[in-house]
């Protein structure tokens, strides 16, 4: 991996870690940080999502967050925003490790130095890789563990032209055992990764002609981690529980997963086309399809297809469920590029529409990468931080709708000071119900309706856009507003 590429990638990741505050999807926060906060002791079980009561989520990732929290207490009160940033930093380092590991395995398969450079660039600077790579989410960490596991296993030499991995993996028995541990970690971060592991084992059985001792050690390593994961679940739920079975029972047998939205079997193709940003997404789909056909005897293909087909068969779909497979997309892209050059000549991309298409794809990727680097995930994160930073004493937060600590029907507790925010939802704006000496009111709207006597102390509205509003776009955009209410402005007595 070129050192200058790594240095630039490190700078890009640091910028993204700094700016990408909040969370991409609710599970990333509520099933990890809120779970950890519950174990620390300042979030009640009743305030957690329904999955907690059903004891169906793995506790490994909340356990890691809990350990980080306890380590930070050595330095005093833990700032939750700093801790979340630190976890994103750990995720970014893990992503960088995945990119380097994949490059070291597959760069030798390219005889052309130019293709090796393209592989490094795709692994390090693909916008979707960076987007998912900095998230302290189960999708990112499970995908990383799976990649490491696949690369660690001592692959048998497969000389078939339909396999990309034609050289034997390094190591012996210890590598096979270590691969099992990594696959087990992948499963414990996200249970659905069992599908990819099954795909890999199926490849070993039907294509790779496995060394049975190695396969046995792989299984032993995986089951050992599952056993340790069960102990961590026992610690977290305070009783013996087999969370993977509960997850399966609730989502498939009881059908609760379908209650969060369904899509037809081709839903992921639609998702990739839409969320991958056309026309770039067309390149993703074409490269993936080509790789799976051309290298149909490669372990990547088998793992991906088992994972993809099983997810497509389920009615519940979400594009983030595909994130664990993202690291392999870069390999598929560059391999497809190489194959096109080999078939049509290296001058294919020197002129005409192929060159213009390649330039357009690069420009779109760079534009999306810049967006990923500079924007936060949630528009209320900075509002929550303002409350945390500016009110060390308890405050009462009024709202007659959505407030800054809300997400759907849940309340974000992790980013509050312990006992520091009392939330009262009151459409009648009965300020006399205030229980503290300082009261706040928050709303997210495009038509601010400040309370009488309220002082605006925070908004994420960009002031200079007020005079530049083409087609009324700014006026239709909702922003957050936080108002400070002084006790002298109403008659409610302080407690």
UniProtKB/TrEMBL annotation:
<dbReference type="InterPro" id="IPR005599">
    <property type="entry name" value="GPI_mannosylTrfase"/>
</dbReference>
<dbReference type="Pfam" id="PF03901">
    <property type="entry name" value="Glyco_transf_22"/>
</dbReference>
<dbReference type="GO" id="GO:0016757">
    <property type="term" value="F:glycosyltransferase activity"/>
</dbReference>
<feature type="transmembrane region" description="Helical">
    <location>
        <begin position="321"/>
        <end position="338"/>
    </location>
</feature>
<feature type="transmembrane region" description="Helical">
    <location>
        <begin position="358"/>
        <end position="377"/>
    </location>
</feature>
<keyword id="KW-0808">Transferase</keyword>
<feature type="transmembrane region" description="Helical">
    <location>
        <begin position="212"/>
        <end position="232"/>
    </location>
</feature>
<feature type="transmembrane region" description="Helical">
    <location>
        <begin position="176"/>
        <end position="206"/>
    </location>
</feature>
<feature type="transmembrane region" description="Helical">
    <location>
        <begin position="118"/>
        <end position="137"/>
    </location>
</feature>
<feature type="transmembrane region" description="Helical">
    <location>
        <begin position="81"/>
        <end position="106"/>
    </location>
</feature>
<keyword id="KW-0472">Membrane</keyword>
<protein>
    <submittedName>
        <fullName>Phosphatidylinositol glycan class B</fullName>
        <ecNumber>2.4.1.-</ecNumber>
    </submittedName>
</protein>
<keyword id="KW-1133">Transmembrane helix</keyword>
<keyword id="KW-0812">Transmembrane</keyword>
<keyword id="KW-0328">Glycosyltransferase</keyword>
<keyword id="KW-0256">Endoplasmic reticulum</keyword>
